[in-house]
Design brief:
- It is a single chain.
- The chain has 463 residues and is of the alpha/beta class.
- It has two domains: 8-206 and 401-462, FAD/NAD(P)-binding domain, CATH 3.50.50.60; 244-396, Flavocytochrome C3, Chain A, domain 1 (Alpha-Beta Complex).
- The chain is 27% helix and 22% strand.
- The protein has ten helices and 19 strands.
- The strands form four sheets. Strands 1, 2, 6, 7, 8, 9, 18 and 19 form an eight-stranded mixed β-sheet that branches. Strands 10, 12, 13, 14, 15 and 16 form a six-stranded mixed β-sheet that branches.
- This is Tricarballylate dehydrogenase.
């Protein structure tokens, strides 16, 4: 802190993808920039550390993307998963801007690779990072530091001081020491509130205490709550979030993407009563994986069980933990704490409802059950080939959708109008676009697009 100016041009709260995109853009415009990252250096990057890809519009092939993925199809996919709960203007802005983001990312040190094979089926829509999210985060920090951006780690912002339509300073604890940070403009990119289990429980009820937090433990919503308490316009439902089904053996916090289970389309999924409760083959996995966290959260004890057989064990990305394995359905049920006879009855009923057809693991194949109250409309094959495998599923929350409402310039507003020197980007404002549901890679799109906009607008303000 010895070489800090008394007042920075821009202070960026947060240290993940959106914060870094804002800081780099502002620094390239000539602004002096400070990043306040709440985590220690070894955990820097927020949820961006756990990402793998970026959903990108493109009019033709551009490495590493194949074919084309144009605006209307992208928007259709978003509308499908959000059920129309989105600000279409901001959604189109994110979609259109994503095309120019990919070369910008490459120019700032991010490297890409061909998409992963298997059930994700994203080679046309999503650009995968070489080395994953941690490599992206490291590349951006290297770029930011080359541009003269200052970075403070273990920097916990407790208060954003607002006076009328202006932010004057931040109250921060840096490595345990209270510090006042002054700047001419501010960008908030500090994520949602999902790591505050008490807040989750207030929104969801006591069941939320059984949720696992697959992302960073540092996103506790302190800055979000502070701004809401000071009259900043908010958006989104506190019970809506990016929540996926993850391995029940994952840690409480920070298990990351490796704990996600991609076996559901080739499974039958049971609750603790040994009953199926939802169509496992409703759509291709990138458009449906993010609904399964909420589905499991609604089941008794917030737990589910995915059962598959030997025909399907190699069709999906493996989890970090090996599945439970057994020679019979009854043995598998017993190992998983389920009633063997009930599970046997459920499996027999499912097997009898399966109909002949051609199985295509990477596309909708119409291979459906017939006569079940809970159908399976694609990839429905009998579980009849031992050995049998099982995974326990629990809800894994990535980030929450309650956030700050922003406009097309990423500016935060109060009841009387815009707060003149305050912008927001990333998960803290993602609820402006994601009312519910999720598309694979779209969180990175929102963070990159609005991070760059926030950085540009904040730099213009101080210029």
């Amino acid at each position: 802190m010895k070489d800090w100016p008394e007042t920075f041009d821009i202070a960026v709260v947060g240290g993940g993808n959106a914060a870094l995109c804002a800081a780099i853009t502002a620094a390239e415009a000539g602004a002096s920039v400070l990043i306040l990252e709440g985590a220690p250096k070894s955990y820097r990057g927020g949820n961006s550390r756990h990402t793998r890809n970026f959903r990108c519009m493109h009019k033709g092939p551009m490495f590493p993307l194949t074919d084309a993925y144009e605006e209307e199809e992208y928007l259709h996919d978003l509308m499908l998963v959000t059920k129309g709960k989105t600000d279409e203007g901001l959604a189109r802005l994110a979609i259109r801007s994503s095309e120019e983001c990919l070369p910008w990312m490459q120019a700032h040190g991010v490297r890409f690779q061909p998409s992963l094979s298997g059930t994700l089926s994203l080679s046309r829509t999503n650009a995968f990072f070489l080395g994953g999210g941690k490599a992206l985060v490291n590349a951006y920090y290297n770029t930011a530091e080359d541009l003269g951006v200052k970075v403070a780690y273990e920097a916990l912002v407790s208060h954003v001081h607002r006076e009328g339509d202006c932010i004057t300073h931040l109250e921060v604890e840096i490595a345990g020491r209270p510090v006042t940070v002054k700047a001419r403009a501010f960008v908030l990119a500090s994520g949602g509130f999902q790591a505050d289990i008490d807040w989750l429980a207030r929104a969801w009820g006591p069941s939320a205490r059984n949720f696992l937090i697959r992302g960073t433990p540092y996103n506790r919503g302190v800055v979000l709550r502070d701004m809401i308490d000071q009259g900043a316009e908010q958006v989104g439902d506190p019970t809506q979030c990016h929540a996926v089904a993850i391995d029940g053996r994952a840690p409480k916090y920070d298990g990351g993407i490796v704990t996600r289970l991609d076996c559901v389309p080739f499974s039958i999924v049971l609750n603790t009563k040994g009953e199926r409760f939802y169509n496992e083959g409703e759509d291709v996995w990138p458009k449906r994986y993010a609904i399964w966290g909420r589905l499991v959260a609604a089941q008794p004890d917030q737990v589910g069980f995915a059962l598959i057989d030997a025909k399907s064990i190699d069709l999906f990305m493996p989890s970090v933990f090996p599945p439970v394995k057994a020679d019979t359905i009854e043995e598998l049920a017993e190992k998983m704490g389920l009633d063997p006879q009930t599970v046997r009855q459920t499996v027999d009923g499912f097997n009898a409802a399966c109909r002949p057809g051609k199985f295509h693991p990477t596309e909708l194949d119409g291979l459906a059950t017939e006569g079940l109250d809970v159908p399976k409309t694609n990839w429905a094959r009998p579980l009849d080939t031992p050995p049998f495998y099982g995974y326990q599923l629990r809800p894994g929350v990535t980030f929450t959708y309650l956030g700050l409402k922003v406009d097309a310039q990423a500016q935060v507003h109060g009841a009387e109008g815009p707060i003149r020197n305050l912008w927001a980007a990333g998960e803290i404002m993602a609820g402006s676009i994601l009312g519910q549901g999720y598309l694979a890679g779209f969180g990175m799109t929102i963070g990159t697009v609005f991070g760059r906009i926030a950085g540009k607008e904040a730099a213009a303000h101080v210029a």
